[in-house]
Write a structure and sequence with these properties.
Elements lengths: L44 H37 L9 E7 L11 H14 L2 E7 L3 H14 L5 E7 L2 E4 L2 E4 L12 H4 L1 E2 H11 L3 E7 L13 E2 L11 E5 L16 H9 L7 H15 L7 E4 L14 H19 L5 H10 L6 H28 L5 H12 L1
Parallel strand pairs: 1-2, 1-3, 3-7, 7-9
Antiparallel strand pairs: 4-5, 4-8, 5-6, 9-10
Helix pairs in contact: 3-5, 6-7, 9-10
């Protein structure tokens, strides 16, 4: 081993007072293995200088790494508290988008599935995604979904594509389905009840089924027992089933990148602190507004507890509870009003409230009654008038019709 010149070697006891100039550079032939028995720290001052050089070289980098790690952990902790990175329960989602049908292909389901998968990943879900899936691929995905579900966790199924009801049961249609008769529907499609059964077997705390599958499909007019849209499904305990439109009705595939229903769902689902019921109510309000009341999303729910796609931020929960209590008091005071003005004021104050849709329905009913009453009054005043003989003949003919 080649040692440094004697004048550069620190003397025993004087290491703290001497300035070591680039100790690693002073060794002309530094051994590749400095961990053998000849280079123990406590052997000699000459050999100890090797390790002082290494320590001085590494120390600043170690401090920097520890500092960065500390702040990263701190940021992750804050994010966890807000529910942005991690949730306490396991969340598993199955997302399917079918568009490439041989008959009547669709425009948006693949885009819908991709956008929903991205949103759910950001909300802490494990996502199983299938696009333009065959029947076998859909069945395999449902089986994998059921295996991942855990007791006490959250399961979510989102389907965008063609769906149909036969004799009151709902079926999701694969892209390779060859449906020639009503009897082949259960054999060549996916029974929506099978998805619910997977959730029930896993005993998930919350089950969410979202069906954007009420579009016109090419099989409705072929078979007598095939109804328009989807049939209403009975939601088992702990489950909410959301439809893109009312049972038996047809939804829009949309003119944009996404279907109308999924477009509105993506806007609302990321908002922190919204209970799932409020999420779907806001979606319904948006779809009704954009479709001019032609499409009315629907839910069937038997949830037992609260669920948030994105949990409330600190201090937000009490504000939501207070807002809900205020809305309820207001609604109780005007829900039986015979006048439309209090109902309109309620909708203006709570446009996204849980009673907003019901208030709008009552407004339409009251206006219809008012219009009918005015028509009856106009007719009564008309028949009470004195007519000329010619006019009376016309009125007699009209009354006989």
């Amino acid at each position: 081993m080649v040692l440094p010149d004697s004048e550069d070697v620190p003397r025993p006891g004087s290491l703290g007072r001497q300035r070591l100039r680039s100790p690693l550079v002073r060794f002309k032939n530094l051994p590749e293995d400095i961990n053998n028995d000849n280079y123990k720290i406590n052997d000699k001052p000459r050999e100890r200088s090797i390790f002082l050089g290494i320590e001085r070289k590494i120390y600043p980098f170690s401090i920097a790494i520890l500092t960065i790690s500390f702040f990263m952990l701190q940021e992750m902790s804050v994010a966890d508290e807000r529910g942005l990175r991690r949730v306490s329960e396991r969340r598993v989602a199955l997302v399917i988008g079918n568009a490439s049908y041989k008959e009547m292909p669709l425009k948006n389901p693949v885009n819908d599935a991709g956008a929903m998968s991205h949103a759910l990943l950001n909300l802490g879900f494990e996502v199983i995604e299938r696009k333009n899936a065959s029947k076998v691929q859909m069945e395999d995905a449902v089986a994998e979904f059921g295996e991942r579900l855990e007791s006490g966790g959250v399961g979510l199924v989102y389907y965008s594509g063609h769906g149909m009801q036969v004799n009151g049961k709902n079926y999701l249609i694969p892209v390779d389905a060859q449906i020639t008769s009503e009897q082949t529907v259960p054999l060549r499609t996916l029974d929506a009840d099978n998805v619910l059964n997977q959730m029930m077997s896993a005993r998930s705390r919350v089950n969410v089924v979202i069906l954007d599958a009420c579009r016109n499909n090419p099989f409705e007019r072929r078979f007598r027992s095939v109804g328009g849209g989807l049939a209403q499904m009975s939601a088992p305990e702990g489950t909410i089933v959301a439809y893109s439109t009312a049972p038996g009705k047809v939804a829009s595939d949309g003119d944009g990148v996404n279907g109308l229903y999924t477009q509105e769902l993506l806007k609302v689902i990321q908002q922190p602190g919204l209970p799932i019921e409020h999420v779907f109510k806001q979606v319904r309000s948006g779809v009704l507004r954009i479709s001019n009341n032609a499409q009315a999303p629907w839910e069937s729910s038997s949830l037992l507890g609260d669920f948030y796609f994105r949990p409330p931020e600190p201090g937000q929960a009490n504000a939501i509870e207070q807002m809900t209590d205020t809305e309820l008091l207001y609604w109780n005071s005007i829900q039986d009003s015979p006048d439309v003005e209090p109902l309109r004021a309620f909708v203006s104050k709570f446009p996204e409230g849980r009673f907003a849709d019901l208030a709008k329905i009552k407004i339409v009913e009251l206006e219809r009654k008012k219009s009918s009453s005015e028509s009856d009054n106009n007719y009564n005043s008309l028949i009470q008038r004195k007519f000329t003989p010619e006019q009376q003949k016309v009125m007699d003919i009209f009354n006989k019709l």
